[in-house]
Write a structure and sequence with these properties.
Oligomer: single chain
Radius of gyration: 23 Å
Bound molecules: iron/sulfur cluster
Number of domains: 2
Largest sheet: 9 strands, mixed
CATH topology of the largest domain: Rossmann fold
Length: about 425
């Protein structure tokens, strides 16, 4: 296990789907601190993780690790229909949770499942042309941001896209950034080589994007001048990128992503364009990828007596809990505390990182955070990139994979 760094050590930050790997971590007077960035999200996460809870609990009372594992295995083995929720873990954790889901017949859905499904369902329907952070950084001359700036949730987004770095000759010297239905991000004002503007909504976001796609396809539609002009700018761009933050899309956001996919497909007949969906943080994208390669199906699936079942709408975690369709919950949160484990009467097992609350009824097993107390791998927001995470301190805590393997062995023994 790596010692806590006293000098600045290169680090990959696991606390949002950008997985910034260009900064360092060092021991400051108040604990670990990011060097090279003032990202508020990373700072808050590091502060929360300053000390880790190390004691397992059963019904709120301290317990040994073995007693907690035994109790958790009994709880899961006794359930007729368990739900695995949160799923805040990395690839290794997901690989170990999948056999446990099969052994218990659990339905699995990530905390960001709703947002994940917007992009996933559109991908299933007609395919997708996406790009990477590096491609945007090096080639995009026009970036269209659907909705509000993603900077609040992904604080280093503009830096990662090379926006406003007029001093770097390797990057595109002049870029246009257009926000649809939201004001231009004020931090872009006055940046070298950046022309930021905004286009108002015409109806709702879907109406606006559908109208834009129709204009790009040069259909005869009555579009306001701002949207017609944006369509022309997209057709004239050398490399256009349509960017959106999945969790900010409204219900039925899949329709918006479908329209964006149509726009990208039309543009690619005469120039170059791509989609950049932003999301899948806290392990959601990594677990989904892992589930898909292990089973052939994404999350919101179940390996039960009828074989594999994928129900993108019916298997939403909150809907299952609200409908009383599940009778036990395994909640995994090794990166952050939001969203919290759904409160309620379900018998619950929580595998939680620093700051995650123990359930009043059920079992709490503390786990290491990949990239802080443990190692691991995460998919970045551009999903074709997987980054390794290295531990920077020794929490003395197991990883999610260790706990899931121990639970699987116990559950199998109880069921035979
Ligand atoms: S933007 Fe995200 S990955 Fe980058 S330092 Fe901030 S929280 Fe970490």
């Amino acid at each position: 296990m790596s010692p806590t760094p006293s000098a600045a050590t290169p680090w990959t930050c696991p606390f949002c789907p950008l997985l910034c790997d260009g900064y360092a971590l060092a021991q400051g007077p108040d604990g670990l601190a990011l060097v090279g960035s003032d990202c508020p999200r990373a700072a808050a996460s590091l502060a929360r993780c300053a000390s880790a809870t190390v004691t397992p609990t059963i019904d709120g009372q301290p317990a040994s690790a073995d007693a907690a594992l035994d109790a958790a295995a009994r709880l899961l083995a006794a359930a007729r229909q368990p739900l695995f929720g949160g799923l805040g873990t990395d690839v290794d954790g997901a690989r170990a949770l999948y056999p446990l889901a099969c052994a218990t017949g659990a339905i699995s859905d990530a905390a960001g499942g709703e947002a994940l499904l917007h992009t996933l369902r559109a991908l299933q329907d007609r395919g997708q042309f996406t790009t990477t952070l590096a491609e945007v950084r090096n080639r995009a001359d026009l970036i269209v941001c659907i909705g509000e700036s993603p900077r609040e949730n992904l604080p280093e987004i503009w830096r990662r896209l090379g926006v406003g770095r007029g001093d770097d000759e390797r990057l595109v010297a002049q870029r246009e950034i257009v926000f649809i239905g939201a004001p231009a991000d004020p931090v872009l004002a006055g940046r070298a080589g950046i022309d930021a503007s905004s286009v108002p909504l015409q109806g709702d976001l879907f109406d606006t994007v559908a109208l834009l796609a129709a204009c790009i396809a040069q259909r005869r539609v009555a579009a306001p001048p701002a949207i017609a002009a944006l369509a022309e700018r997209l057709r004239a761009a050398r490399y256009a990128v349509l960017m959106f933050e999945s969790k900010r899309l409204p219900a039925q956001g899949t329709l918006i992503v479908e329209a964006l996919n149509q726009a990208v497909a039309t543009l690619n007949r005469s120039t170059r364009a791509a989609l950049l969906p932003l999301g899948g943080g806290d392990g959601a994208s990594s677990v989904n990828q892992t589930w898909t390669w292990l089973s052939g199906l994404p999350l919101r699936s179940r390996a039960g007596p009828l074989g594999l079942e994928h129900e993108p709408l019916r298997y939403g975690a909150q809907a299952l809990i609200d409908d009383g369709a599940v009778d036990a919950l395994l909640w995994v949160a090794s990166f952050g505390t939001e969203p919290p484990c759904p409160p309620g009467a379900l018998p619950t097992v929580v595998l939680g990182g620093p700051g995650v609350a123990a359930p009043a009824r059920g079992v709490f097993i503390p786990v290491a955070t990949p990239g802080l107390g443990g190692s691991g791998h995460l998919f970045r927001t551009d999903s074709s990139v997987v980054l390794p995470l290295e531990p920077v301190r020794d929490d003395g805590l197991p990883g999610v994979a260790d706990v899931a393997k121990a639970l699987t062995a116990r559950v199998r023994a109880l069921k035979t």
